[in-house]
Amino acid sequence: MEKSTRRHLISALVAALLLGVVVLCRCKTAWADAYALYFYPLWSAGVSWLSARLPVSLDEWVVIVAVAVALVRLVRIRRRWAALLSLLLWMTVWFYAGWGLNYFRSSVFDRAGKRPEAFEEQKFRHFLEDYAQELNGSYRPFEELDKPSFEQEVRQYYATLPAHWGLAQPKPWQKPKRLLANRLYSAVGVSGYVGPFCSEIQINEDAPLRQYPLLYAHELAHLLGVSSEAEANFWAYRACLASSRPEIRYAAHQSLLPYVLANARAALGEEDFRAWRATLRPEVVEVYQSERAYWQERYSPEIGRVHAWFYDKFLKGNRIATGSASYNEVIRLLLTLGTD
Predict the structure, then answer these.
(1) Average pLDDT of 240-263?
(2) Of 338 and 88, more confident
(3) Distance CA 26, CA 38 (A)
(4) Domain boundaries along the sequence of the chain
């Protein structure tokens, strides 16, 4: 066995042993909670401070370089198989150490000390009525946004959350990074994401201005240790609803509309669903339809379906049982936990 092969095998073995910690955190929620409460806040604060020295997304470059190196080693697989194995294992270790172990922490219901409420049709109908009134009443044109001021407001909101929610403290340098492959993200339907390797926020630069507040608040929630998409939606909604700016509060209500529609269509009969939908103000329906059409124009079904399949499997493999459908579960969180 060549000396370099032996060295890479030893490296791969060390990485495999560290991945044993991932398995333990997956099985022992207390371990994952300790990671989320004590290790991750320090890690993300320090790494995001370092990555903030550059305006570009370092996470993108980490992935690009890793893929390039992996492809080179794959071409030379007979001589470089141990190096490829070591690279893949260490990238996995970095992903889980840098953010991924948050997938295995206690659920937001456990942290709130509440059980998810069973579906009650009458309560849901009351929710729909209240939501329609709030959405209709809050509507206003959205023409400008002072992003730095708004981002500071959201960080202040998250900083005031009680400790039992288990979110890390936001830092002023945790700002969205410029993207290299922005067109690709639009093509696969990705409006934003958190980089797990360098603790960065990325927001699709094609996003309409009205959607920016919720996207920023959603991705910042992920950066603060929230793994569930439904919980990130929940915190983004609450953070924007707490804004002093009425246009931000409207954006919060508008952001829920796709999820409310999906839940209402599933829970109500077709006639009742159409009757409730008719109570919505025409302007908010027009915004909803225009934003759907806007993203659809940029979406590529061919690569989008591949990404959707992979992401669904990825979420299910990390204890998000409903996969991509978990986004819609924000309504269940609101019914159980409220907005206060």
Answers:
(1) 93
(2) 88
(3) 17
(4) 3-104, 117-337
Report the distance separating Cα 64 and Cα 255, nearest Å: 32
* Residue at token pair 């986004």: 327
Residue 339 is predicted with a pLDDT of: 67
Q: Does the pLDDT value for residue 328 go beyond 70?
A: no
CA 279 to each of CA 137, 289, 335: distance values in angstroms, whole numbers, following the listed order: 12, 16, 21
Q: What is the DSSP string of 232-258?
A: HHHHHHHHHHT-S-HHHHHHHHHHHHH
What value does the mean pLDDT take over residues 2-9? 79
How many residues belong to the chain?
Answer: 340
Sheet arrangement for strand 176-177: 176-177, 200-203, 192-195
Q: For residue 329, what are the contacts with CB-CB under 8 A and spacing of at least 6? A: 228, 230, 322
CA atoms of 95 and 227, how far apart (whole Å): 13
pLDDT digits (tens, 9 = 90+) for 115-138: 877 778 888 889 899 999 999 999
What pLDDT, on the 0 to 100 scale, is given for residue 335? 86
- Let me know: does 294 contact 165? Beta carbons within 8 Å: no
288, two tokens? 């909803």
| 224: region left, alpha or beta (phi > 0 left; psi from -120 to 50 alpha) | alpha
Single out the residue of 226, 265, 243, 237 nearest to residue 108, CA to CA: 226
CA 155, CA 211: separation in Å to the nearest integer?
Answer: 17
- Let me know: does 48 contact 222? Beta carbons within 8 Å: no
Confidence check: pLDDT of 218 > 80: yes
The share of the chain scoring above pLDDT 90, in percent, equals 59
C-beta separation of 338 from 122 below 8 A: no
